[in-house]
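Progress report, Aim 2. The chain analyzed during this reporting quarter is listed below.
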Amino acid sequence: MKNIVVEMLKDLSQYPKTMYEWNTLRRPGMGVDYTSEEYRALVKRVVNSLHPARMRLRVTLIIDETPSAKTFRLVRVDGDTPPFRAGQYINLFVNQQGVHTSRPYSISSPPGVEYLDLTVRDVPGGFVAPFLLEAFRVGDSFDSTGPAGSFYHEPLIDGEDLVFVAGGSGITPFMSIIRQMELQGWPRKITLLYGSRRTNDVIFGEELARLAKKNERFRFASIISEPPKNYRGLKGFIDAKLIRKEVGAIAGKTFYLCGPHAMYDFCIPELLKLGVPRHKIKRELYGPPADITKVPGWPAKLKPTTVFTVQVNDQTIQAPAGEPLLNSLERHGLVVPAVCRSGECSACRTRLLSGEVFMPPNAGLRESDRQFGYIHACVAFPISDLVIRL
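Predicted structure tokens for the chain:
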């Protein structure tokens, strides 16, 4: 077989030249020694610059966006700012109350600038967001992963007519895309429907209004669910009627959704009602469901406060049913690789040896993982005693 391939290669017009160059490079003192430590170190530096597994970041600017949201401008101190796709996120590592944990935050700045903007909104009952908003100061440093995620525009699949549906802090990945479009001269048409509870919850409101005013290829509609008295703007929720009015014809458009799980539960059926094909609806996941007991399939008689025993390698911990297994592991000092914390990236993939967990239907578990007993700890909730292996 090898001789046949060689004979076929000899028929190619460039074969003699290619072989001459290859043999020249193999001579002593010629070409590059790809096995040398120097070359390996060079490759490692390049790979780490473009696709860092971990970065050291420093806060250089803090912007108050709303009473409950701030933007942290971050500069990498251990290398260059890595390339990323508008819409991606990084995962911040923090030590909060003695617990080593992490949270993913979408990048709100556009690709190509020498910094990364993360816009963080306070979450009632949250563990990390309140800490970031209260404790972080200019000059503080922390670690993160490199950019990750698949919530970005794919021209060949998504087309050139896009509709963004955002809720609350779900505006952040869209800002990265919108700012990139502004820098590129608006090569695509974008309609943004942005739902907020109150008028002072609208993040980037002034910037979005300004961009919409000067660019005919960008339309911005702010919808307030709890408007003040005599409010003249759009009110209520992003339902089929409002979408039809603000977006117009549905055909040829791709819809992107980013916001709380409740928004998806409401908006996706409304889009389907309008005839939007499922493959034309893309959504970003922001963590596990806020209340797992409301997810279809949750055991009706099981209370979220019920505590189960989890044996992890040679250690035993206690884990409540209503908390993701990953959170329970972190609270007990067990470090588990995690990036998206939404069930998609599989970084926290864990072997379930015995017992049963509940996972939302949209958990991104591969069929092979199901067959061989793997779970995603970030969206796995114990509903019995467990034995797992990290």
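The two ends are 44 Å apart (CA to CA). Residues 255 and 281 are 5 Å apart (CA to CA). These observations will guide the mutagenesis work planned for the next reporting period.
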